[in-house]
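Why run this: before we spend reagent on co-expression, it is cheaper to look at a predicted model of the complex and decide which construct boundaries make sense. The entries below are exactly what would go into the expression plan.
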Amino acid sequence: GIQVEQSPPDLILQEGANSTLRCNFSDSVNNLQWFHQNPWGQLINLFYIPSGTKQNGRLSATTVATERYSLLYISSSQTTDSGVYFCAWEADGSEKLVFGKGTKLTVNP
Amino acid sequence: DAGVTQSPTHLIKTRGQHVTLRCSPISGHKSVSWYQQVLGQGPQFIFQYYEKEERGRGNFPDRFSARQFPNYSSELNVNALLLGDSALYLCASSTGEGYEQYFGPGTRLTVT
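The model came back. Tokens follow.
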């Protein structure tokens, strides 16, 4: 199956700092999404981004499908950004989502 | 509009018991998928149902089963519970046409 490397595995920031999270894939993936899982377990949709660049407030994402990677940018981080960030993609031509191992982000005040 | 809803929020069961978890998708969505997330890992796919038919199944034992009702809500059933079934169970809703999936708040199951 497709291998994914999600980096960094852990990240600690001071409030106001910027960060870049990355997913590298061993092969082409379909219908890539980025999620934020808050400390209560809720998975929150950030971006549906099979290709190209999208922005939503302080967050933006870029997927370069031909080079098999996706980036999530967080600017001016806030303590509420803490949690685990997952990239996920659809496998087997179905709607089965396969998740990376996640990046655990801690933003300190 | 209401998002994906799941019930119950928390559940404690004993080994060997049976459990039923419930999910209501976003209005207009016809597909429901179930995922299991154990502590420290990403969610793992269990089932997908679309228009009341099973469309996909993950690598889980036959103790796990699910169904979808005419109103597109869904149930996940787990028989003969094991300690290792303790996890957060997540339901995801989509149109079923290969686009974005939206997750509910989850049911946290503890098996003692």
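Chain A touches chain B through 23 residues (CB under 8 Å). Chain A is about 0% helix and 60% strand. Bring this page to Monday's planning discussion.
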